[in-house]
Write a structure and sequence with these properties.
Helices cover about 85% and strands about 0% of the residues.
Amino acid sequence: MVKTNARWAGYLFIALGLINWRYQDSNPNAMTNSLVLIAGGVITLILAFTKPGLAWLETQAGKTIGLIAGAALIIFSFIN
C-alpha cells in the first residue's frame, strides 16, 4: 500500500510542478518554483521504485517525513 501511495504522490508533485510552470509563465521565478515541485516528485518516485527507498518509506520515520514533506510541497504549490 505504501508503494502505491508513494508513486501516486510522486506523480502528483510532478503534475503540480508542470501545471504551475505553465500557468505562471510571466513570473520570473516560475521555473525555480516548478522545479522544486518536480524534484520532490522525482525523489518520491525514486524512493518508491527502489528496494531501499521503499523499505525506508515503510518505517514510521519514513511515513512521518513523507507526510510532512508532501504536505509542505502541496502548500508550496498553492502559495507560490
